[in-house]
Amino acid sequence: MPHSIRRQLASTYANNKKPKTMKKPKPEHQLWIDSCTTAIAALEELIALQADYQSEYDDMTESQHESKRGECLDAICTLDLEGALDTVRTAAELELP
Fold first, then answer.
1. Please, are residues 92 and 40 in contact by the beta-carbon 8 Å criterion?
2. What's the pTM value of the predicted model, to 2 decimals?
3. 25 — phi, psi (to 5°)?
4. End-to-end CA distance of the chain, in Å?
């Protein structure tokens, strides 16, 4: 069989493959729970980092507090991540009808 015909046949078979079965989308309430779970894990990690940054900031001199890094650390340390975590935990407890 000539090469060109083989290529045509291969192309025809390749284009006639059955489509892969698609996964069913998750129900809306499961997406909510999964998203809350992901957010909780991320916030817990940020809170741990925030504690490390607070220690670093506390060890800085006054002049270092005024540096760019000192200002950034201060901004990070003043974020209410615990409040955000409480909010997401509350959201995770909501049951969508």
1. yes
2. 0.69
3. -65, 145
4. 62
